């Protein structure tokens, strides 16, 4: 599926996407840091904490969360709410569906199936 970079950027920078990723990164990242650097963190010996490892351990779940949320929002599934203003094209008959932010993705009128949609234009 071809997706416009501007669509991805729009989804990545949405407040809801960033908020979810930050929450997940803090919970998972801090938990993993406590597991991986247990002695230094719990004894409050911050000189022994490996800072690069600490921040990478926070960064990885943040990036995974961002990727997961954006990938899900780019599926353009029938019945889901569109997160970006765009034009979709039916993979089977190529009929177009113009969507605004917050509109529901409908079944294709021609195919009458839960067709996979491709983004054709970011408006």
Describe this protein's structure.
The protein has helices spanning 5-12, 15-36, 38-42, 51-73, and strands spanning 86-90, 96-99, 117-122. By secondary structure, the protein is an alpha+beta fold. It folds into two domains: 5-73, no CATH class; 86-122. A hairpin with a 5-residue loop joins strand 1 and strand 2 (96-99). The chain is rod-shaped.
Our Rg estimate from Cα atoms comes to: 20 Å
Largest β sheet strand count, sense and barrel closure? 3 strands, antiparallel
Strand elements, count: 3
Calculate the terminal CA-CA distance, rounded to whole Å: 18 Å
**Portion of residues in helices?**
40-55%
Structural class: alpha+beta
Give the strand content.
5-15%
Unreliable stretches (pLDDT < 50, length at least 5) are: none
Structurally, how many domains make up the residues? 2
What spatial form do the alpha-carbon principal axes imply?
rod-shaped
**H-E order:** HHHHEEE
Number of helices: 4
Arithmetic mean of pLDDT: 85
Strand arrangement, major sheet: 2-1-3
Q: Layout of SSEs?
A:
Blueprint: H1 5-12, H2 15-36, H3 38-42, H4 51-73, E1 86-90, E2 96-99, E3 117-122
Antiparallel strand pairs: 1-2, 1-3
Helix pairs in contact: 2-4
